[in-house]
Amino acid sequence: MRVLLVNHFPLEGSGSGIYTKNIAKRLIERGHEVEAIVVDKYKNRGNGFPVKTIINYDFPCFTTHPHSNNQFYHLTNDEMDNYLETFIKTIDKEVNSFEPDIIHCQHIWVAPFAASKTELPYIITAHGTDIKGFKKDKRYHQIAIKAAEGAEKIITISKYIHDSVKKHFPVKEEKLRMILNGFDENIFHPKNLNKKNV
Q1: 156-171 pLDDT, tens per residue?
Q2: How far apart are CA 140 and CA 1, in angstroms?
Q3: Distance of alpha carbon 151 from the chain centroid
Q4: For 2-178, CATH number?
Q5: Are 40 and 21 in contact (CB under 8 A)?
Q6: How far apart (Å, rounded) are the C-alpha atoms in residues 80 and 114?
Q7: Whole-angstrom Cα distance, residue 176 to residue 129?
Q8: Terminal CA-CA length for the chain
Q9: Which residue in 13, 71, 77, 129 has the fewest CB atoms around it within 10 Å?
Q10: What is the rounded distance in angstroms from the CA atom of residue 198 to the CA atom of residue 5?
Q11: Three-class SS of residue 177?
């Protein structure tokens, strides 16, 4: 299967970026072909899979990021339109060249709305900061709602986020799938320690 991963942020410095990179690695280990589209102010470094980087000097975030001080809520309407148009064009170009079977977008936000303009099925992972953004800036409501409505599935990474998606988006329960974030057992594992000494 060919999977196009799309994120509003770099593969480093944010939870959804690390999540995207780890999903890509695991999909590749299972024999799938993967490409990614990310936003960063630096050209993307090698990750073991092709990454198309949308270079944006001070890219917008929901909260903060080590590579940017900008936020979605500070964008003018023209900047918002430009950001959306950039995603639509970039996803369209990658769909035509990579020919993915499915698109997996991070956040119920601009990227899945752009993915909805293709004829391909797409899924979304809701990470929580997208819900904060939805509550903070009403200008994004129609974009986010249309993105959620058109998705094949929406993955939620916690019970709280699952309930928040149900509360804020008009989607049926069967469209939602809670999958808790995993961890790498090679990095995070219990040490054999004497509890009393600790």
Answers
A1: 999 999 999 999 999 9
A2: 32
A3: 13
A4: 3.40.50.2000
A5: no
A6: 13
A7: 17
A8: 47
A9: 77
A10: 42
A11: strand
